[in-house]
Fold:
Amino acid sequence: MNTLPAYTPNLPQQIISPSYDLASSTSGTQNVREVYAELRVPVLRNKPFAKDVSLDIAGRHSQYDLFGGANTFMADLHWQVNNAVTFRGGFQRAFRAPSLQDLYNPSIQAQVPISGDPCDYNSSYRTGANAAQVAALCQAQGVPSGLLSSYSYGEASANGVYAGNTHLKPEVADTFTVGFVLTPHFHGSLDRDLGASVDYYHIKLNGAVGAVTGDLVLQNCFNTNGANPTYSNSNFYCQQISRDPTTGTLATLKTFEENIGSFTTDGVDIQAHWGFPLHALGMSERSGRVLLQTYVSYLRSLRVVGLGAPSVNLAGSIADTYSAIAADGASISDLSHPSWKANTMLGYANGPLGVALHWRFISSMADLMDGVNSGDAGVPAYSYFDLNGHYQITSELQVRAGITNLFDKMEPFVAGAPLLTDAATYDIFGRQYFVGFTANFD
Structure:
């Protein structure tokens, strides 16, 4: 039995937290009991076209005091045809109960980041095709008619209130994978170290817990994603917005977590490597060895359904999935979902010396941070190159050095993103150098 302790801080009802956010006290518990079993079944061995066929089966029953019972299971098939070819695949049912933070996060009053106020006279909402409907909605929310034509909101944040949600339900995911591995083991020294693998995956997550951030509240209220086609102030998301009746500025945005819908994604992962000694090309026996290795990921789809918006395929775009949230209600989800990513390395080794050139590739992406209909310019394909090496001076001492972002490429501009770029995907520091050593004193 796993018991998560209650969190009941010995603090006044309202405090100023270390991050200067106003927070309330909170408490909560969750108990879970689990039973787990796994079985590996050898099916065939050393038969024609079946050097090794085996099946892995596992199951788990979890009993939550808040959510009742849940069953998860998996089945994986491993089929090694011969020394050169192996097929693999499987199915897995996964279950994630909301965490204590999801359920019992204290009520926090804090500044929440936003990309702008749709009621700003110069915003794309006020100047777009639905400008008249947007203006009427702004007035219904409290922007005085006399200020509407010149109303401006120049801040990148707004007062927000975020709290946990004890009505959250568990997430359930089904994962299917199938692929193959090639290890041909050719006899020639030029192609002896050659191999590749290709795997297809499909994941469907239902009841996904996601963050309804300040930006998402504003976007859905003002119909960026089709969530309020009548531009009604009685819309659920519009009801999370309050304005100062005198100035019309944003007074409070209520943010929270919800079981927002579903995520469905599928794609292909590819890995390949090829290494050979240079004497295979006619050079001397002491000329060293070359290794070429690459990891390629193809994202075919990332479809998000929920929050009153139509199904959207985010593959090949920069967009917030609102799938992870900080304690103050800010979204900390991954933003970039390129259709293609690759990390390729060309290396050379000769005795104690090793050097490698790395190529990191990210395909071009549309910018959907301000919504699918924002019209923001996208981001072109990006390539970064890194160079590193090491030298084993003695058996106890190794020195290493390198350069990251060799050509000092700057990060792209991403409208609507924190820092106006995606710092988790793109290099925001420019060219960097490093040097170090490792000493073994055994």
The longest strand covers residues 250-277. The two ends are 42 Å apart (CA to CA).
